[in-house]
What does this fold into?
Amino acid sequence: MTSGLPRTIETARIVAPAVEPESWPELRELAGGRLDELADEELEATFTGAFRGDVPLDATFLGGETAGSLLDRVLPALERLLADETWDTVLAVLHGGVNRAILSYALTGERRLLGGFEQAPACINVLDVGADWIVRAVNHTPYDPLHASGRSTTMEELYRQYLPYRKARAT
It folds into this structure.
């Protein structure tokens, strides 16, 4: 299954070429707001604090969608998937915020978004579901299993990449 966004469909086709991926649009990533509307003095904290701690449900992602609205669409989709007894193994090619929502639910059984799960690009999470959830692996990156290439979070790296663009637009 994918969110339906092109990068998730492409990845699913690479990993499982014999299977046509299903698109579940409710599993799309959090929608950010207009970054140019964020004040310069709030920009770094908005990026780097997006997934810190137990994320308040009214917290917005880069000035856009709230953590609560993410959970409002992801958790029913997850429940729908769990109710379907026709599958044994699922490949879900999704996004960092969505993965965090699923991992948070797997560990707490509650409608919470725990931000402490780093989700590097193309990472793998392995979960067993059933009467109880078992989290077997989180944020495994085959291209850098020890995460030795850098200690920045994905959001810190996105902030670093965005800054030159922001400065160019300001001039």
About this structure: The first strand starts at residue 124 and ends at 128. Residues 67-83 form the longest helix (17 residues). The domain at 6-170 is CATH 3.40.50.1240 (Rossmann fold).
